[in-house]
Amino acid sequence: MSCFFDNGCRYTFWLACRLFLSVEDPNHVAKLADPFQLLAAGIIAMPIDLPGTPFNKAIKASKFVRKELLEIIKQRKVDLAEGKASTTQDILSHMLRTSDENGVFMKELDIADKILGLLIGDHDTASAACTFIVKFLAELPHIYDKVYEEQMEIANSKAPGALLNWDDIQNMKYSWNVACEVMRLAPPVQGSFREVLNDFIFNGFTIPKGWKLYWSANSTHKNAEYFPEPEKLDPTRFEGNGPAPFTFVPFGGGPRMCPGKEYARLEILVFMHNLVKRFKWQKLLPDEKIIVDPMPMPARGLPVRLIPHKKP
Prior knowledge:
Blueprint: E1 2-3, H1 4-21, H2 26-41, H3 54-81, H4 91-97, H5 108-139, H6 141-156, H7 166-170, H8 173-185, E2 191-195, E3 200-202, E4 205-207, E5 212-216, H9 217-221, H10 261-276, E6 279-283, E7 290-292, E8 296-298, E9 303-308
Antiparallel strand pairs: 1-9, 2-5, 3-4, 6-9, 7-8
Helix pairs in contact: 1-5, 2-3, 3-5, 5-6, 5-8, 5-10
């Protein structure tokens, strides 16, 4: 038995620590993971800074994580100077060795804040997407079978021990259509806030400059005008040119679209490939409820029974 949401969070956080910071020691990752969970849980909490509130816990956790990141940054600067680290090994090295157009390098605290933002952006969102992919593939075996067929075609084309490459990812078209349709039905980011730059009128309502607006991915994705039978999972919606612009917004849209979209795509497809080629699975709680806190997630973490494929 496996509880996929918790495992998914651990998987995505470990992967982010490895790719962003080259932190692979399990003890070091665990040291960051627990306070990071508190930080992630308080991002969209009521801003009440009193002891015991999610917001207060998130503030304390962010200070701890930022302090740990600063220690990693300081050590990396030493390692780079001594030739013990590569300038291209991860995002941290890139940030330390890249200046702006005036030759000015980012300060250590600014780098820590940016790394923190990247970790937050990757943490719950990717794990929520992977969890709901597991949920829907368990519920819809005909969809699972098509994903399995595509992934096994790719797996069988590889030499023994060969890793996935970029061409393999590009060939996972049906799998990505499934992932997109899952994110349409259960968008990891339910929406976000934006500030109005100019007065405008929408549906007869005057929206003044300076107001805060909340754009909703969830309600946009369920608009029957653009997605007939909006509650039905139908990967064919993403064939050809796909949905109309700005109707499918799990990563936002426009100039402030999530910069980690392609990283998320890579992460999700590699996860699907390695899971599907090894296992089928069954949900252990068929009627498990979905809660939003602040990401959508199965209330009990989506426990499943993994069933290894029989070897031919």
